[in-house]
Amino acid sequence: MLQNRYITNYDGKVIEYANIREYIAALRSNPALAVVSMQMAADFREVSRAAIDRMVRVGRLKEVKIKNTRCVLAGDLVKLTEEFERQVETARDYLREAAAKRSIVFYDPVMKVLGLSRTVPADRTKIGEILGAVSEESFARDKVLLSAIVHRKTAGRTAPGPGFLPLARALGFIWQDDRLFIEQQVERVFDRYAGTARSGGGRGRTRRR
């Protein structure tokens, strides 16, 4: 007889199987139990094992333990990937509309439209990943860095977040003056998407030449 054992782990549940034979028997009756190892999940997400552990603790990934081997459900990784792709698409469309109106936008409204909060550390990390993906996509497609128009609220002049310049370097940009480079990239974004906004109210601070 197949005996499945469930134990409480953090605020979720770990599905435990005493051995691989028991797990395969369960998998045959429920293909949704397909798993990948914790390390494979980390490699796929391009994060550390510790980051995968945190995702298990907060319930974003379900852990499956086969004897002494810790795994996560492959289906959860697929769902996270699809969710991320939807958020990138939403952010891209939001920023294109702002750029068409020649508007700088701040992090808070961008995060709000994505269902994120800057008071949540994981969300602050995630918005950086989303904006990075948006700029990688816009650079490949339009040769501009769309996230250049997403700025932090600071006294005086505003600027993109700390991940913007490293991303630009990784994409092959070379410059000497950070401020001048940012201004040039903002103008390139505005020029690329000028006049393409759908009708509706403004969403950010209009940049005037």
Description:
The protein is of the alpha+beta class and 209 residues long. Helices cover 51% and strands 16% of the residues. The protein is built from 8 helices and 9 strands. The chain has helices at 20-29, 38-45, 49-57, 74-100, 107-113, 121-142, 164-170, 178-193; strands at 5-9, 12-17, 35-37, 63-66, 69-73, 103-106, 150-152, 159-160, 205-206. A 5-stranded mixed β-sheet has the order 1-2-4-5-3. The protein has a 4-stranded mixed β-sheet with strand order 8-7-6-9, with helices on both faces. Strand 1 and strand 2 (12-17) form a beta hairpin. Helix 2 crosses helix 3 (49-57), helix 4 packs across helix 6 and helix 4 (74-100) crosses helix 8 (178-193). The longest helix is centred in the middle third of the chain and has 27 residues, at 74-100. The radius of gyration is 22 Å and the shape is elongated. Residues 1-11 and 199-209 have low confidence and may be disordered.
Which SSEs are present, and which pair or pack?
Layout: E1 5-9, E2 12-17, H1 20-29, E3 35-37, H2 38-45, H3 49-57, E4 63-66, E5 69-73, H4 74-100, E6 103-106, H5 107-113, H6 121-142, E7 150-152, E8 159-160, H7 164-170, H8 178-193, E9 205-206
Parallel strand pairs: 2-4, 6-7
Antiparallel strand pairs: 1-2, 3-5, 4-5, 6-9, 7-8
Short description:
With 209 residues, the chain is of the alpha+beta class. It has helices spanning 20-29, 38-45, 49-57, 74-100, 107-113, 121-142, 164-170, 178-193, and strands at residues 5-9, 12-17, 35-37, 63-66, 69-73, 103-106, 150-152, 159-160, 205-206. Strands 1-2-4-5-3 form a five-stranded mixed β-sheet. Strands 8-7-6-9 form a four-stranded mixed β-sheet, sandwiched between helices.
